[in-house]
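Private note to self, pasted from the team thread so I don't lose it. Backbone tokens:
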């Protein structure tokens, strides 16, 4: 088989371009929230798993936190059950919580672990209940009615993160494993809670003081008035964009999650379009990346 010189030159150029970024992120922790379309497209699933294995192989420490809302919805539908959502949050009674645990902690988690291992990685699946990894409490939610009165809403077994046992994750990292975490938590009484995967990823990144938090989504990122992806944002700039209404709706919780992580000590957070093949590598190993980057360092420059 003859050598294709053009392809060889392209490969060499790509590796040379990536080298400074490999050196910069060597031995750094990268928390990746994985979900959306990237979890339902076989080609994107395979691409994601290879990306994670490559990151680990070249000396980075990826930690994966996954969602699985569509998979939960599908099983609920098959069982003839409905699941109400309020402001994007799933109302989770005891029976629904059992299903959420089965899908996220079993099917989805083990599927991701298996795929990473298939591509040569050493992944280990966890839920927030394992070794009390994620301590949680019941999420308190209120809404404001048209007359201005506030009303408490009971979402059932929906929680928020109180703390993360970082020692468990660091033990796995030091042993050269890739942690894959399902967003379930437990309180002091042993009650299980369904927690938004973005929020779990943000808190895991914060407790680990990660170099970067990556939120893979089904959108390109924060779009400006011209429709182009905005990046290089500071917390102050993000607050201004929310006030102007440029950041609104379903993007606000993701942005808020990224902001909280950065303000909590994570060096940078980025919202990335998970529908782009190799999005994880493109974000880390290229100059411009492929998403909306939020960083305190920019503010200090």
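Design output:
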């Amino acid at each position: 088989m003859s050598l294709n010189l053009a392809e060889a030159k392209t490969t060499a150029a790509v590796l040379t371009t990536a080298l400074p970024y490999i050196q910069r992120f060597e031995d750094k922790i990268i928390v990746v929230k994985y979900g959306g379309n990237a979890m339902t497209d076989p080609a994107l699933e395979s691409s994601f798993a290879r990306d994670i294995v490559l990151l680990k192989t070249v000396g980075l420490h990826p930690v994966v936190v996954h969602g699985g809302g569509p998979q939960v919805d599908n099983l609920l539908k098959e069982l003839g059950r409905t699941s109400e959502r309020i402001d994007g949050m799933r109302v989770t009674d005891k029976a629904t919580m059992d299903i959420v645990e089965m899908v996220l902690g079993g099917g989805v988690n083990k599927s991701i672990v298996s795929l990473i291992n298939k591509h040569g990685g050493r992944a280990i699946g966890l839920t927030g209940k394992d070794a009390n990894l994620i301590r949680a409490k019941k999420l308190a939610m209120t809404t404001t009615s048209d007359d201005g009165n506030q009303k408490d809403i009971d979402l059932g077994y929906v929680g928020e993160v109180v703390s993360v046992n970082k020692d468990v994750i660091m033990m796995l990292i030091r042993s050269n494993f890739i942690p894959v975490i399902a967003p379930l938590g437990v309180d002091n009484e042993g009650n299980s809670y369904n927690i938004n995967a973005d929020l779990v990823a943000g808190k895991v990144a914060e407790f680990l003081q990660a170099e970067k938090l990556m939120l893979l989504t089904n959108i390109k990122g924060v779009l400006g008035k011209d429709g182009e992806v905005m990046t290089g944002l500071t917390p102050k700039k993000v607050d201004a964009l929310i006030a102007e209404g440029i950041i609104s709706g379903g993007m606000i919780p993701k942005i808020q999650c990224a902001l909280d992580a950065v303000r909590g000590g994570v060096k940078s957070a980025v919202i990335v379009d998970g529908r782009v093949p190799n999005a994880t590598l493109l974000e880390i190993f290229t100059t411009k990346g492929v998403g909306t980057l939020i960083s305190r360092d920019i503010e200090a420059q």
